[in-house]
Amino acid sequence: MNMFHKTLACAAVLLALTGTARAEGLPGDGRTIRYAQDSSLGGNYVVAQIVSDAFKALGYKVKLVTLDNTLFFPAVAQRDMDIGTDITLPQREPGFRAVAKDAELVGEGMIIGGGINGYLIDKKTALANNITTLEQLKDPKVAALFGSSGKAELTSCDPAWSCGKVIDYQMKAFELTGTVRQVRGKYEALMADVVTKVKGGKPVFFYAWSPSWVTNALVPGSDVLWLPTPKDALPPDIPNDGSALVKDVEGCAGDANPCRMAMGSWNYHTVANKQFLADNPAIRQLMQQVHFPTAVWSQWEAAIGKEGGSPEMIRKLADQWIGANQAQFDQWIAAAK
């Protein structure tokens, strides 16, 4: 073999080795991830796009499905779904516990520091009637300010959402069932009406959380106020992750500090099938790194509240974040590989 042919042979070997190294460097080669996002629209949808891109960078194909958390748990246990990254805890703790033999938590939550949730009323009505606590709605005269039927109309969670279970429990625990009536439907549509009412100077009473598009459209302290609850109260099967007393809550009625919220800190958590994680250690490594500052979530939620949450708009927000944080994104991928 002359030198020319030897050179060609060496080049062919090197090319083959490089190709093999490249294939070995993509843990998801030939695999598809069945990835669930909850039916509740928010910054979690932006995260689903960013995480999908990370999965693809690791070589996986991604099948993203919108699925309510209630249905996700049996699906992930049975391996009809592999992973979800917007499981709200502690609200969804009972559902997770039921499948903990087959599924597990990965990482410490998507929102650094977690979020808050509770009851709010419009600031105009609160100041005009000196309303500083949720307990005051036990008074029929106060309750009547927020409804046309003699009862306060509380814009509540979707029927399938776990926060509805919390609200049901607390209405009884706080002795408000006689003066408060819950209004339930598609939360996003109901809250769009609430926003319109506040902008029109009308009284509102609703349940919400932060960060969310709602608390960006109706800013606590400016448009609405959080109403401190009278005591910690959660259903027995939902753990309170610390006290519901939260320091430095912006827009807490009566300037209460700490402000007693509906519960302690909540977060979007990643839940995955145990066997899936065992077969895909790169996914565990990836998801242990992925989380975002509260300020970033607030920006996403504000954009969604202002412009709507079309797939194109969600994709745009994801692309903007990756573009501005390419080094961090690349670091996630490198560590996962």
Automatic annotation (TrEMBL):
Q: Where is the ABC-type glycine betaine transport system substrate-binding domain?
A: 41-322
Q: Show the InterPro entries listed in the entry.
A: ABC_Gly_betaine_transp_sub-bd
Pfam families from the xrefs? OpuAC
GO cellular component terms, A-Z: ATP-binding cassette (ABC) transporter complex
Which UniProt keyword terms apply here?
Signal
Q: Which GO terms describe its molecular function?
A: transmembrane transporter activity
Q: Which domain of life is it from?
A: Bacteria
Q: Which SUPFAM superfamilies match?
A: Periplasmic binding protein-like II
What is the protein name given in its UniProt record? Glycine betaine/L-proline ABC transporter substrate-binding protein ProX
The uppermost taxa in this organism's lineage are:
Bacteria, Pseudomonadati, Pseudomonadota, Gammaproteobacteria, Pseudomonadales
The gene name reads proX
